[in-house]
């Protein structure tokens, strides 16, 4: 398994985009207004630039892939219209160096099932940097979360360390959502990735779901450009990608997160959870692909 933090993945994607002769990246250009020119059959965006000037750009189609707070989505549907819900629990993503991990037999990544101290530990750099993402109750401020962090680490990390025993290099609380727009196409505007749908991060289906959107959208726009398809293929894009979110991404990511805290004790989890039973079956040496080597992910109940 390869784990790449977003800023490293971003650099790789940037290199590929820059190698395309027809693509241009404009940093510091912020979309502020959008509209359609029906007579010219064009969509337009008004951007505010870093130097304070503005400019209007038009195109046959505009794709809003401007993240969870998408201005394109808000202009199309309204500021507070994003169907779905926010979980009543939140997560805190941290990066730490901690020697205590050397004393335990952890795999590259593991998920800890616990009604209160559910969390995930993954090694993310060869130099020993670990990502520890843990669950918290909802409704806490940044300062309250920060104050609770040492006790959380003492409860969840091997060796129950105090802050002098580890180096906390990143601390990022996140609210977690399950949301999807009612339309990913409105006229000449299209939405993709977090601008169109959100899920909790357990299972890694957020960024990957967005990449799959863009693959389908690329095929659709290319088909229109080459006269192999008419504009109605964009409605198909909307239909198919939303169906996949509702049928696959939402239920699986929801189960992934619920599984971490829904069981009151380890015995209940081991006896009841179908996903855990599947993993146990896969750990059977006869089921493994290739020879030897332990599986590289674990579920641990405490
Ligand atoms: C803690 C955490 C862990 C995660 N882990 C995973 C994981 O393991 N695997 C996975 O697949 N996903 C994961 N995700 C989800 C993943 O990070 C997102 O799904 C993904 O980054 C969404 O990409 P995006 O391009 O849609 O939006 P973003 O990455 O948010 O990019 C949006 C871009 O639009 C720009 N923008 C915003 N507004 C404007 C504007 N008005 N004008 C111009 N530009 C604008 C922003 O500057 C930004 O560059 C995780 C998320 C969180 C919070």
UniProtKB/TrEMBL annotation:
This is FAD-binding domain-containing protein. Residues 4-250 form the FAD-binding domain. GO terms for cellular component: mitochondrion. The keyword Flavoprotein applies. It holds the Pfam family FAD_binding_3. SUPFAM superfamilies: FAD/NAD(P)-binding domain. Keywords: FAD, Flavoprotein, Oxidoreductase. The keyword Oxidoreductase applies. One of its GO terms (molecular function) is FAD binding. It comes from the Eukaryota.
């Amino acid at each position: 398994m390869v784990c790449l933090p977003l800023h490293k993945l971003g650099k790789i994607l940037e290199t590929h985009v820059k190698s395309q002769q027809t693509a241009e990246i404009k940093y510091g250009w912020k979309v502020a207004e959008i509209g359609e020119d029906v007579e010219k059959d064009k969509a337009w965006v008004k951007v505010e630039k870093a130097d304070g000037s503005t400019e209007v750009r038009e195109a046959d189609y505009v794709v809003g892939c401007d993240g969870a707070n998408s201005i394109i989505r808000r202009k199309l549907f309204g500021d507070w219209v994003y169907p779905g819900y926010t979980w009543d629990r939140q997560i805190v993503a941290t990066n730490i160096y901690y020697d205590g991990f050397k004393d335990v037999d952890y795999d590259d990544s593991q998920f800890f099932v616990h009604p209160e101290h559910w969390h995930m530990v993954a090694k993310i750099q060869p130099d020993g940097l670990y990502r520890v993402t843990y669950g918290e109750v909802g409704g806490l401020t940044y300062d309250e979360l920060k104050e609770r962090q040492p006790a959380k680490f003492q409860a969840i990390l091997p060796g129950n360390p105090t802050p002098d025993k580890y180096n906390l290099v990143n601390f990022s609380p996140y609210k977690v959502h399950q949301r999807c727009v009612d339309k990913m196409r409105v006229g000449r505007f299209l939405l993709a990735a977090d601008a169109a749908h959100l899920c909790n991060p357990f299972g890694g289906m957020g960024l990957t779901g967005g990449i799959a959107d863009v693959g389908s959208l690329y095929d659709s726009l290319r088909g229109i450009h080459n006269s192999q398809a008419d504009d109605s293929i964009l409605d198909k894009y909307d239909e198919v990608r939303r169906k996949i979110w509702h049928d696959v991404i939402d239920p699986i990511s929801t189960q992934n997160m619920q599984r971490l805290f829904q069981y009151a004790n380890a015995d209940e989890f081991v006896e009841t959870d179908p996903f855990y039973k599947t993993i146990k079956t896969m750990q059977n040496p006869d089921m493994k692909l290739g020879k030897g080597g332990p599986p590289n992910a674990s579920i641990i109940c405490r």
